[in-house]
Predict the 3D structure of the following.
Amino acid sequence: MRRLVGETTLRPRQLILPMFVAEGLDAPRPISSMPGVVQHTRDTLRKAAVDAVNAGVGGLMLFGIPAKRDAEGSGAIDENGILNVALRDLRSELGDSTVLMADTCLDEFTDHGHCGVLDADGDVDNDATLRLYAEMAVAQVEAGAHVLGPSGMMDGQVGVIRRALDEVGHSEAAILAYAAKFASAFYGPFREAVDSQLKGDRKTYQQDPGNVREALREIELDLAEGADMVMVKPALSYLDVIKAAADISPVPVAAYNISGEYAMVEAAAANGWLDRERTVLEVLTSIRRAGADLILTYWAAEAAAWLD
Ligand code: PBG
């Protein structure tokens, strides 16, 4: 009876697995604050990606960790940069059997850890960053990405990327806009996951956690610039924002169940304080119930297997 009358669905195809690939590793490197998640080598990335696709996930979101960084994040644009190389690996392995997504942001590649380049005063230079995002996006699509995920919260990033792609004939590539991304303490474990060099915070470009009206305005701007899907991030402390986004969005709404949300449940489960599988499925169901069509979650492959 509960199955018959259940309101909210949670299906493997609605889950997107974020994955990390690092340059110059011989073996996968565990991320201590995210038990069960690793920085992959090119080789283990391939295998884990195939396993996730076989488990039924709807897509993969790839992050790259370079061996060397510089002020401009040039490894992000270089066709031999780790993220572009790994995209090529995965596209040749998986073809069109999944939706391959790439993080279109400079923070993993800059030696200061910011999502953009800095001006003479050390502030993030929005418009100079946009020019690099445009080049990065083209490089990622040429490497095999189906979808780009601009996550840097620069003003105008969606429009600039859309135009850059269309100009070189990649009108097929889609944009998943990190539209409402909040300056959150829950990103903590991710900073370890990508060996982030950031000192300070991202409050000049990420949003104030108290602002929902501003989140909707960010979403509207991204839609006007050509976003094909919009994202709210983080998920759990922002379920009301997901709901508000779902109420107004004419395109699919994604939510990112981020590193700190993962770490909290894993830590409690490891202590025997929570039933891990039940908790994970309840968390994911709550994000769907709030209105997210798609969920990026580090549990994607495992949850997909449970749901199958
Ligand atoms: C920035 C980016 C971040 C995450 C995804 N893309 C970190 C940040 O904004 O500091 C966080 C994801 C997570 O915490 O799981 N490129």
In short: The mean pLDDT is 97.
